[in-house]
Specification:
Radius of gyration: 24 Å
Helix content: 55-70%
Largest sheet: 3 strands, antiparallel
Structural class: mainly alpha
Oligomer: single chain
Strand content: 5-15%
Number of strands: 3
Order of helices and strands: HHHHHEHEEH
Number of helices: 7
């Protein structure tokens, strides 16, 4: 996972931990107060009411503002990380962003706000299902608590996936747009050189379509296993990156290949 992704995951995990804490402080006491052998007619309403109190903590203006702050910080950090990478590859990054890049950064921020908000939403949906189903069939509160711990693990893994996937995708898209804005028509597909690299991505990185090993035009991308155009970082959990290649180098490689 990229360094920016690690920091992002830490922020997302804080949300998971906060939801878990609220559930065990506000919901589980209600569950434990009910007897599985005999449940009053209002037990479901009592549990749902407690869950609604938790939901209120992770919705509304305050939580939306926090989600926007986390997402905005993450996207800005990824921009800075991408710019450092591009500079290493000889791409001049000027002050300010192109209109297209600004639009992408805003879209990426909004998408991640939605993903952040979905973490407590999905977690609490699983909590409600686990508790109501368990109590309906007479499962003891301690077993329900165990199920909730398992659900927390699911939420944590999803938070990690979001951080890893989004950091790679956003980094890849920013690097692409910066290179295009700087006038680079070509890029070299660079994989991570380890056993976790997808077979197709390794093929792409090693193929020569006429401009040199792993070199492609931004307007003529290689194809994925599904036959669709693909760029570094676009596939889920992809760790590949693009390295800018000057047009003169690509053309020279093509001419040398003909001779």
């Amino acid at each position: 996972m990229l360094r920016v992704g690690v920091h992002y995951y830490a922020e997302l995990q804080k949300i998971v931990d906060a939801v878990d804490k609220a559930v065990f402080e506000l919901v589980m006491p209600v569950v434990e107060s009910e007897e599985p052998e005999y449940i009053a007619d209002s037990w479901g309403e009592n549990v749902l009411s407690a869950i609604d109190r938790v939901k209120a903590l992770f919705s509304g203006v305050a939580f939306d503002r926090m989600a926007r702050q986390i997402a905005s910080t993450f996207v800005r950090s990824t921009l800075q990380y991408s710019d450092r990478q591009n500079k290493r590859f000889g791409v001049e990054v000027f002050n300010g962003n192109s209109t297209k890049l600004n639009a992408y950064l805003e879209a990426a921020t909004l998408q991640n706000v939605s993903l952040i908000k979905s973490i407590p939403e999905r977690y609490l949906e699983n909590v409600a299902n686990a508790i109501l189903t368990g109590m309906r069939v007479g499962v003891r509160p301690e077993r329900i608590a165990e199920q909730l711990r398992e659900d927390m693990g699911v939420a944590s893994r999803r938070a990690k996936f979001i951080a890893r996937d989004q950091s790679a995708k956003i980094n890849g898209e920013i690097m692409k747009q910066r290179q295009i804005d700087a006038g680079f028509e070509f890029f070299k597909w660079v994989d991570s050189h380890d056993s976790r690299v997808r077979h197709r991505h390794k093929e792409i990185a090693n193929a020569d379509v006429g401009y040199g090993k792993g070199i492609y035009r931004w307007d003529d991308l290689p194809l994925s296993d599904k036959g669709e155009p693909i760029q570094p970082g676009q596939d889920y959990n992809c760790r590949c990156i693009s390295r800018a290649v000057r047009t003169s180098v690509a053309i020279r490689n093509k001419q040398n290949r003909k001779t």
